[in-house]
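Entry for the shared binder. Reason: the reviewer on the internal report wants the predicted structure included alongside the sequence.
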Amino acid sequence: MAKRKDIKDYIRTIVDFPHEGIMFRDVTTLFADPRGFRMAIDQMLHPYAGERIDKVIGLEARGFILGGAIAHQLSVGFVPVRKKGKLPGTTISQEYKLEYGEAIVEIHDDAIQPGEKILLVDDLLATGGTAEAGIKLVERLGGEIIGCVFIIDLPELGGRKRLEEMGMDVTVLCEFDGM
């Protein structure tokens, strides 16, 4: 009898992408497999069963794929958090630090209403900088993050600890060592 696949079995690793020494965890192979994709969405939703969730925010770009599917399952709205200059309406911005330099993400200023309960979604948790920026945007609009959910955590980079120190509930489906 064949071993039942888990989430990690659907994720391929590409060595030295985008730079030498990086082990890129590619979730497109997970997305392409209907069983794997369904398993990921179900497992991402499971910890929040019975919770009030008003909207799902997805972090650019793979968080859009996951967040859209999760919002659909919950019958709630989806809100993208995008790189600066990509949203057409009036936005608010949040800077955050990258390994080398800084970046800015934005959200429409009317996307979240005060008091709404928000689930933050992305594929990968590394240093936590992008997620922290997304959390700050939601909080500035008066929303409340009820949880942050990711497919992959890279524990050595400290993102989970960073978000938990902010008081966030963090769910990850699997972990990989290294970068």
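Summary line for the report: Strands lie at 12-15, 23-26, 55-59, 77-83, 91-97, 102-108, 117-125, 144-153, 170-175.
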